[in-house]
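Entry:
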Amino acid sequence: MSIGYTTLGSGEEKILVLHGWFGDYAVWEPTFNSLDKETFTYVFMDYRGYGKSIDIAGDYSMSEIASDSNSLVNELGWENFHVVGHSMGGMAIQRLILDMDDRKRIKSSVAIDPVPACGAQLDDESWALFEGAIKNDENRYNILNFTTGNRNSAQWLNYMVERSHASTTESAYAGYLNAWVKENFVEETKGLETPFLVCIGEHDLAFSKEAMEGTYLAWLPNSQLEIIANAGHYPMQEAPVNLATVMETFIKKNI
């Protein structure tokens, strides 16, 4: 079994990118023209049940994402690299660092509108909304609309709902929901020294500045926060040039 991935660029510095819950690597495509492909080689991995890995079954856990990520970078022969994770991918990059034999192989991390290491820990009403999204497109639409600030077009929201179906299996979608909501490895995460940039869209109603200050910035000593203007939970879709610039500026400081 080889996990699916997409490569962009040919630079000496390597970057592994982990996507979120709603869709595969293609959510990043609006940034592609803004990425420095001479300095960096980007590898966008698809989790089991998503995108180029859609036919690979699994247990759909953070540990599995970390294991598949570790196997992939080893297969690619990467000695050192940077890692970027969006939403539940932000939670996964922490699990990856924790599970590495040598954590210093990861030179820096960028977590974008990320789920913290404690999981989302949803209340009953929120859990019903998200669990219902496994079967119900209206729930998917409402989640997307809320997390991007109730401000984006119906055409884009419907496109994202359609992509969420086309790029994942229902079993993976359900399995990863349990992972990013209910897993909790905070005590392991506290004190990780990897440089972290935490980015959140200014209109993300799910992940606020205060929430990041109480989690990532409180637990990770080498972390800093950046607010992405004119974006909600999907800055790679809503403000791709800005996100790419902020992300690469940080990574270049950690080469």
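The longest strand covers residues 106-112.
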